[in-house]
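Technical appendix A lists one of the benchmark inputs used to test multi-chain prediction within the project. The record comprises two sequence entries:
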Amino acid sequence: MAVLLISPLAACLVLAVSTILLRRAWLNRVAGLLAGTGILASGLAIAAAVMSDGPLTAMGGLLRADALTAFMLIVVGAVGVTATWGSLAPRGSTRADAFAYPTLIVAFLFAMTLAVLADNLGILWVALEATTITTAFLVGHYRTRGSLEAAWKYVVLGSVGVAIALLGIVLLYAATVQAGQPTLSWASLALGGIDLDPGLVKIAAGLTLLGFATKAGLAPMHSWLPDAHSQAPAAVSGLMSGVLLAVAFYGILRIQAITDAMIGPELMRGLLIAGGLLSIAEAGALILRQRDLKRMLAYSSIEHMGIIALAAAIGGPLAISAALLHMLGHGLAKSSSFVVSGRILNVEGTTQISRIRGLLARRPGVAIPFLAGTAALLGMPPFVLFFTEVAIVIAGFQRGLGWVMAVAIALLLLAFVGIARHASDMSFGTGHDDDAPTGAVEDRDRSWHGPAAPIALALIAAIVIGLLAGPLSTLLAEAAATLAGGS
Amino acid sequence: MSDAVLAQALGICSALLLLSAVLLVWRRAQVTALPLLALQGLALAGLVAVIAISEGSLELLGVALLVLLFKSIVIPLALARAGRGEYGGAPLINTATSLIAVAALTALAYAISAPLAVLGTGPAIQAIPVGIALVLYGFLLLVTGRHAIAQLIGFLVIDNGTATVAFLSSGGVPIIVELGVFLDVLLVILILYVLTGRIRDEYGYADLDDLTELHD
């Protein structure tokens, strides 16, 4: 079964190397999509294997997959497919020598896959840092002043942030060396059998959480995020917002499982509640007065990471299953929305909210997927984010965090109002100033804007996964049990 | 190596690490910063070599050579090329304030290292606050530096501090992680090196004060 764990990594490596060596236009065009599809398929296969035989390991225990790993692979694959397929270039427009972009996309997907497969906090760290490395030039892809600035801040803040996490991991390792059982394996650490000094574990956990929170976009460590996510090409924004944040949060979940087993849940719960509420508040305030569509989507990601952080703080099977499902639903909806924002930029020449009006009447081909994606992000039923948010709030009240939930709901309303108002202005509004295009119906644009199928599939999936009982809920319950019991 | 010699060698290396970092905060000019960075790399390589000899580990000796090659030779030379003598305007805080901040950060490093005493009582454990201090100085350099090279040096000092803590507290993390971390840091430096060049092409010089396109 070890081959199941190695194959997605090997496939990504082969693809990345082939784009460099073969230099074929068709390969450059579809490399990212192939990698995403491969990861999704292996995630499904590993899920099936884990459900029937329990956790898998490979390469002498360096790689390990349990239900949570399998679920995260499915998230990486599904969002990868949505973002890369949705922004697939028209046939014949890709150049054979333009291999840097597809190579970096595949390498980025490889790094995220390695992060969720590694049973070693050190390798998890190395993989998370590698996501910064592979995306740095993707953020700066357009070579404008804005994208250059975003890339610089992203690399400096991202690397320094995760450097803090490395310090935490180093101290945790030192504690295990002192206890006579040197290990960085989260599977062994989460069993709680190693007798570590609680004071040291507290410092290590705090530092690691702070570092990973930087990559996960949690306030107050988020300042790089709106810049990077708004300046990158649409597919890259979709991948970074839709799944990289979730992979970084996966690191937090593993650290939380370790500290819960060793020193109890209080420390992580307090920190996650603070970070979660602050993220939702910050995002809400800035969404309300946002002027740029892509920045608004970026702040919406901070808001959703805040919700997931609160769910992690609540803990327990209901909240954790809901948090994981929220990651998948948010990934699908956010990557679709970013892809559509790229199409809006293509046809309107701007992502400034005030300059886009009457989109539904003029360009229904982009306005309809835009509105559907926005509704999904707002957590409107029947989209899955509605059910997961309700489940998280119920779990919060059940576990005695009622006041936190009350504050969170009030803050979420801010973001809801902000996004709903901007989206309706863009879709239905008429131009106020003279240079904004009016919603005249006679010049309705019916041209082809890009593949419609991936957006439709992703948004349908964002409905279906909420209604789907059966295999998915068993996998989620198993994953939540993994975190709670350290199996 | 006898215990006394080991303690002395560790002491010298840690002292050099701390001294080079203090001087980096004090003297903000590229002509002195890069030799100081090279000295810090040399001290870190020496520290790793001492631990490698005391533990009889060939692996660690290899790591020491890598550190020596990259941190005290390749990276400072590359930064000299990328920086072209620029270091930006005066840092955001003046020299006196910087030195007071260094004193405060050093005290803070010793205070927050107190719980680490449970790791043991050897000379290596007692030197851990030096690594923590380096990380804090690195943050200070990073937030007060106004030039791309100044921020890059801050990042490197943070990394040197983390590495110091890793080697002093546990003799280094497992070798595969060690190499992965090392490769990551090199690639980050390479990326920042390329971006520095692009910022200069775009703006004419690499002063970060001009990066003000993006805001809410």
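DSSP finds eight helices and no strands in chain B. Chain B has a mean pLDDT of 90. Comparable benchmark entries are summarised in Table A2.
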